[in-house]
Amino acid sequence: MVAITKRELNQQTAKALARVSATGEVVQVTERGVPKWLLVPIQAVVDDRLEELTKQGWVIPPQDNPPPWPDSNDTGAPEYTPEEVDELVRWIKDDR
User: What angle is formed at CA 36 by the lines to CA 13 and CA 52, rounded to 5 degrees?
Assistant: First the structure.
């Protein structure tokens, strides 16, 4: 991890951001010698967060070979005609 001062960041913002983008490296920004901020590539944060949510069970990654989508006849669900669907949509819109 590279450290730069707040003043260096102020004077060379584009250079610091380009370095983070190009290398994926985290840049630590200090103020009076004390670490205050981190410049981190957004993809690293997204990847870490996605991995964390997957471990917690909030995200399920896509399967390589998902099962085929069932036919409507296989599920036992009622089948509606287009007219019945239109009537249901009208009923829902009027109810709200």
Answer: 95
Instruction: Please count the residues of the chain.
Output: 96
Q: Are 39 and 64 in contact (CB under 8 A)?
A: no
Q: What is the pTM of this model?
A: 0.50
Torsion of CA 30, 17, 53, 35, to 10 degrees: 0
CATH for 2-56, options being 3.40.225.10, 3.40.1620.10, 3.40.50.970, 2.60.450.10: 3.40.1620.10
Give the pLDDT confidence of 1-51 residue by residue, as tens digits. Answer: 889 999 999 999 999 999 998 988 899 999 999 999 999 988 877 888 888
